[in-house]
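Thread title: Can someone regenerate the structure for this chain?

I was given the following input by a collaborator and told the matching C-alpha cells would be attached. They weren't. Posting the sequence so someone can regenerate them.
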Amino acid sequence: MSGVPSKEILGVNLSNCLRQLEEGESFTSVLDMLSDRAIQSFPDATTGSLSNCRGRWFEILLIYSLNLAIQDMDARCFVKLGTASEHTLFQIFNNVGNKINIPPNYTLNLSMPDMLFIRNVPKVLNEWKKKILSFESNSVNSESVIDDILGSYKHLMKDPIPFEDCIAFCSIKTSLRPDRKYQAMYEAECIRAIEKRISGSNEAKYVMVGPVDAKKTKSILETNYSIVSLADQNSGPALTIDKVSVVNNLKELSEFIHFCEGLTVAV
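Best answer:
Regenerated them for you:
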C-alpha cells in the first residue's frame, strides 16, 4: 500500500495535535509526529503520499487554529476553498459572474486560493465556525470535524458573498519549491484579473502562508509585480503576492492575522 489515509491519521491524533500546538510546539513538529505515526501504520508509504498528507494536515490544523484565534469575532472567519472540479469562484462570490461574460459552450477554469479570510460572515458560516471549535466539548467525531473544515466552501456556495468581503486570499504551502511558488503566483494573478474586471482596482490582498522559511524565495515573491497590474495604464503596478507569511507556531499565527487585518479598511 503506497497511499496514506490522511484523514484517518489526523482524526485519531487531532486532539493531541491541537494540544501540542497550544503548549508551544511548532506546526513542523506536529507534522513530523503525524508522519511518524503514518509510517508506523503504513511502512510502505511513498514520499509523495506523505508529502501530500503533510500539506493536507497543515491546511486543516491551520484553518482550525486561525478560527480558534478569532472565535470571538463573529464577523470574521477563515474558509477552506475546494478544487476547480468542486466549485468555481463564480459560485462563492455573488458579484463576479454578472461582470464576466463567458460565451455559450465555453468555461473559465481558474486555479483558486486555498483559503479565504472574510468579513461580514453569513450566519451559516458563523454556525459552522462554532461547530468545529466545540468538537471536543461536544464529543463530535474528529473525522467529522475534518470533513467540515475541508467542505467549508459549500456554505459559501449556498450563501455567496461579495468579492469585496474577502479580507485576504491565501495560498497555503508546506513547501516553497518552484512548482509551488509558480502555482501561488498563478492563483494570485487570477484573483487580480477578476478584481480588475469587476472593480477596476488593485486592492485585493494575496498572502502565501506556510511553516517554511526560505528567504530567497520570499524575496523573489515579495518583489514580483503582477502582470495584470503592469498592463493597466490607469494605475500603478501591484505586487503579485503581498506577503509570504511564515506560520510555524501560534505566535506567528497571531502575527499573520494581525497582518491581514492591517490590510483592511475598518468596517
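The domain at 73-262 is CATH 3.40.91.10 (Restriction Endonuclease).
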